[in-house]
Amino acid sequence: MTGAVPSYLSPTGQEIVFLLLGAVTVGSALLVVTTRQLVHAALWLVLCFGALAGCYLVLTAEFVAWVQVLIYVGAVVALLLFGIMLTRAPIGRSADLDSGNRVVAAIVALATAAVLVTVVIDGFRTAYADLTPGRGAASEVGSSLFRNWVLPFEALSVLLLAALIGAIVLSRTDIRGR
Amino acid sequence: MNGIQPPTIEYGQLSPLLLVFGAAIVGVLIEALAPRYLRKSLQMPVTLLGLVGAFALVLTVVMQGVPTKAAAEGAIAVDGPALFIWGVILVLAVISVLLINDDNEFVASAAAVPGTPEEEDAIAAGGAHTEIYPLALFAIGGMMLFASANDLLIMFVALEVMSLPLYLLCGLARRRRLLSQEASVKYFLLGAFSSAFFLYGMALVYGFAGTVSLAGISDALGAVGGQNTLLLIGAGMLGVGLLFKIGAAPFQAWKPDVYQGAPTPITALMASGTLVAAFGAVLRVFWVALGNLDWDWRPVMWGVAILTMVAGAVLAITQTDIKRMLAYSSIAHAGFLLTGVIATGAEAQNALSLKGILFYLVAYGITTVGAFAVVTMVRDAGGEAGHLSRWAGLGKRSPALAGVFAFFLLAFAGIPLTSGFFGKYAVFAAAVAGGAVPLVIVGVVSSAVAAFFYVRVIVLMFFSEPAPDGPTIAVPSVGTAGVVAIAAAATVVLGIYPEPVLRLAEDAASTLFIR
To answer: Could you list the residue ranges that cross the membrane (chain B) (predicted)?
Structure first.
């Protein structure tokens, strides 16, 4: 985790790209909550998640980056868009997207962000991660997953099965007598 | 790259766990393949055989000698306390499943909106959700995994495996369905929130230690310097997640609502099994991983324990619903158990505290299941007679039932000659030995306050005139009668002759947790 810390004054190309991607992430995240159009918010969310995937990629965590693209950009945002379509939410510009709680919400969000940023800066001020390419590659993650983490992995499949059965219990309407 | 080196899995040590999950999967297959009229008569034996078989396997593992090394690549610690807790969870699960077997408690069709013709149709057609059995087995397997997790990652997964089926089962009450569904949603939302806390704490602790293994975190406490903020906030968040599960104040708000709304057999399973499993996990995190940080967490735990005992005991007095009252009593008991968690010290002291906690968990768990079994039998036109005023004069209508219930309440209060007395004695004695005398004084005072409302219910049952339209006492099914009998017998035996179980707890505790 720790090693010789290079100076911050001569950033490498990697660091510059990381900072730019971070700026894109924060900017698009702000646009998600300030835009007045629901569909635009969902699309800004794509950009936000995509830029975050880019950050992961720069940090050599390529597997996590692809998971981010597949699950967040692919599945979560698609789900949101379907939700907007199916609930007949207003598609154009709508004025009533702001709730009366927005001041409180902003304060809570800022306070949470402040706590998290403080903790991370305090914790990792002197930490320097060595970014050797290939450590986050799918093959590395895979062999670690199926060796060190095989039991949690299998337990997760049990969890998914339980969730499926639960969904069936809650939603099936064709249950007839015994 | 020439292939992956296969992991070493100690199947023998993990066999109880695997059998429970295996039985759950067989249950799912029965749902898929068996005709509807056969399902219940197949599910019940499969579930019971799975649980009893797993208990036998626990005994086999104990016979072969308690392992001294974590199993499955360090993911699970099958040590003395874990085996003891597995045994306790399995016993509690078997008697809870006997209660679950009662058809009258569960909804005919969960998807039918309450109060609609569809619901009446489903009831008239005799619909039933036999998926309850595999779901309960998943939850029980999760509990076992939770109590034996040796790293934070598997602990989190186990937390979810345990909780998710319980969230669902809470919403399946046959009567007062809106209350039940509300309980389920509340439990789900708050539970998800607490899981998020746990996960975030885990991430911060990983940031500090560079590992999620409990032993690794313990080593890192001495080796890593200068990142205390990360560690303390991470440990605090882990604590929030775990204390939520045991229902310690100030995270106790969900317990009365959920216990009241959930079908009573599920409440019994939650109040006994989940509490046992969650204490297993609390002990592992705070003793194994954060044991050397005790100067930092002990003052906070003092506060939490005092608040939990006092809040549980005082708020229980104001309750008018029997299940809510039992829920607050469960909160108070969680506080009593926390005094044992705090009383750490040298190895002998830890073993003493652990022994007390383990014995308390057995005694309290069995009595709780028995008390909830009695609750299922006192019925009104609209289901169980929850309101305390309906219980007035029960002792004159049905002396035997009221007598057994009074006995359970006395055991909760910790009256001598009941299991509760030795449980409280063991934990408080360990706490005194550990130097937590003020805490024990608070504990004894809140026990006295708690005894007040237990005795109030007893007085209500025996010295009030029964209402003319009072509740009926359902003729118990064989299962329910068996549960009440087993629980009453266990409460008596543990209260008069506790030595065998105490010695078992001592043996289990003497090896402490393996690292």
So the answer is: 14-34, 46-63, 83-101, 122-146, 152-173, 185-209, 229-254, 266-287, 299-318, 325-345, 357-378, 399-422, 428-461, 473-497
Mean pLDDT of B85-113: 88
The answer to whether B10 and B71 are in contact (CB under 8 A) is yes
DSSP β-bridge partners for residue B321: B387
CATH number of A13-133: 1.20.120.1200
Across residues B102-108, what is the average pLDDT?
79
Domain boundaries, chain A: 13-133
What does the alpha-carbon distance between residue B236 and residue B303 come to, in Å, rounded to a whole number? 13
> Which chain A residues are Cβ-neighbours of B40 within 8 angstroms?
178
Phi (first) and psi of residue B383, to 5 degrees = 115, -150
Tell me the pLDDT tens digit for each residue of B453-511: 899 999 998 988 887 777 888 788 888 899 999 999 999 999 999 999 999 999 888 88
pLDDT of residue A2: 46
Taking chain A (178 residues) in runs of 10, the rounded mean pLDDT of each run is: 60 87 94 87 92 91 90 90 81 74 90 88 75 78 86 92 91 64
Quote ipTM for the complex: 0.90
Q: Are residues B230 and A119, on separate chains, in Cβ contact within 8 Å?
A: yes
Cross-strand bridge partners of residue B213: B151
Query: How far is the C-alpha of B150 from the C-alpha of B43, rounded, in Å?
Result: 32
3-state secondary structure of B405: helix
User: How many contacts does A have with B, using Cβ atoms within 8 A?
Assistant: 130
pLDDT of amino acid A5: 61
**A20 CB-contact burial (10 Å; exposed 0-12 / middle 13-18 / buried 19+):** middle
What are the strands of the beta sheet with B472-473, ordered from one edge?
B383-384, B378-380, B472-473
The reported pLDDT for the residue numbered A28 is 95
Calpha distance B434→B353 (Å, rounded): 8
In the DSSP assignment, the letter for residue B290 is S
Q: Mark out chain A residues that contact chain B at CB-CB < 8 A.
A: 1, 118-120, 122-124, 126, 139, 142-143, 146-152, 155-156, 158-159, 161-163, 165-166, 168-173, 175-178
Cβ–Cβ below 8 Å for A150 and B208: no
Q: Report the residue of A141, A165, A168 to disrupt the B interface, i.e. the one with the largest count of B CBs within 10 Å.
A: A165
Quick one: which H or E segment has residue A52?
Answer: helix A38-58
Which of B162, B168, B137, B135 lies closest to B147, judged by CA?
Answer: B162
Hey, where are the domains in chain B? Answer: 11-510
Q: How close B109 gets to chain A, by Cα (Å)? A: 7
Per CB-CB distance under 8 Å, the chain A contacts of B7 are: 146-148, 150
Contact call for A175 and B161, based on CB within 8 A: no
Q: What is the pLDDT of residue B398?
A: 87
- In this structure, chain B runs to a length of 515
Q: Tell the residue number behind the tokens 């993911």, with chain if given.
A: B75
What torsion, rounded to 10 degrees, do the Cα atoms B403, B406, B407, B411 define? 180
Q: Return the residue of A nearest to B165 by Cα.
A: A162
In this predicted structure, the answer to whether residue B2 has a pLDDT above a threshold of 60 is no
**Of B345, B220, B243, B355, nearest to B290 (Cα)?**
B220
B16-39 residue pLDDT tens = 999 999 999 999 999 989 888 888
**Angle at which helices B419-433 and B347-377 cross, to 10°:** 150
The C-alpha of B6 sits at a distance from chain A's nearest C-alpha, in angstroms, of 6
